Amino acid sequence: MKGKLIIDVIALIPELIAPIIEDGVVSRAHNNELFELRFWNPRDYSTDNHHTVDARPYGGGPGMVMMYEPLKKTFDAIESFRGSRGLRLYMSPQGDLLKQQRVRELSEEQHLIILCGRYEGVDQRIIDTEIDGEISVGDYVLSGGELAAAILIDAIVRILPDAISNEESHLHDSFSIGDQLDHPHYTRPREINGLKVPEVLFSGDHAKIAQWRDAEAKARTEARRVRLRQEEL
Q1: What fold is seen in the domain 172-232?
Q2: Assigned superfamily of 5-159
Q3: Strand pairing class (191-192; 195-196)
Q4: Residues in domain tRNA methyltransferase TRMD/TRM10-type (predicted)?
Q5: Looking at the predicted structure, is the pLDDT value of residue 176 above 90?
Q6: Domain locations in the chain?
Q7: Active site residues
Q8: Cis peptide before 42 (omega within 30 of 0)
Q9: Is 45 known as a binding-site position?
């Protein structure tokens, strides 16, 4: 039986990630010990008095690059502490776009180590020797990998067993069935400002409701595909 998920995060600004365990689904899962979250700062493994973790890139160019040695020592410290190498991920705009299937796969792991870059990124030798996979949360650039890591952690934790009281909830999320989007949702009141809830939802006929929801989800998904195709032209 799979034990508690362990997530170790290597980050220069862990304060950007820590709030995810203060409220909501992730907080409850953390309080119920469904997963463990620990932060590791590469500055603690720097060898100089200034705790330097970055340097100018060879070959010139703007910005700074996170250095190999502090990151390598951080990975080694985690492995020594855990007794496990873990699956090592780097949050990067060059990575594979995060999709729900990948989230499901990661939720089955026992130990994840997430590296958050800063500045112009990390020394390529760390990626070549320590990283098992690079993950992107979209085709845009953030100031660092911390917020991307928070997105990844939230996506993983919410589908852990017992993380959500009604586990069927996430089974009907967008992308839970291939790339299909979720159907529309309605709640009280039944009518407001001339806007009415579809009558089928009051029919009590669960088969008809399921059929309507499936049709709406497929229509949404197709509309999205058309929009994406138009954007690619």
Answers
A1: Trp Operon Repressor; Chain A (1.10.1270)
A2: SPOUT methyltransferase, trefoil knot domain (3.40.1280.10)
A3: antiparallel
A4: 7-229
A5: no
A6: 5-159, 172-232
A7: 93, 120, 158, 173
A8: no
A9: no
pTM over 0.70: yes
Q: Is 119 annotated as a binding residue?
A: no
Neighbours of 100 (CB within 10 A): 17
Residue pair 114/91 in contact (Cβ under 8 Å)? The answer is yes
Specify the DSSP class assigned to residue 44: G
- Looking at residue 149, its pLDDT comes to 98
Burial of 5: CB neighbours in 10 Å, binned 0-12, 13-18, 19+: buried
Q: Is 141 annotated as a binding residue?
A: yes
Cα(24)–Cα(114) distance, rounded to whole angstroms? 22
- The one-character DSSP state at 158 is T
- Give percent of the chain with pLDDT exceeding 90: 84
Please provide the DSSP assignment of 3-25 as one string.
--EEEEEE-S-GGGTGGGGTSHH
Residue 117 annotated as binding site: yes
| CA nearest to 198, candidates 214, 180, 184, 181 | 184
pLDDT tens readout for residues 121-168: 999 999 999 999 999 999 999 999 999 999 999 999 999 999 997 555
**What was the pLDDT predicted at 173?**
53
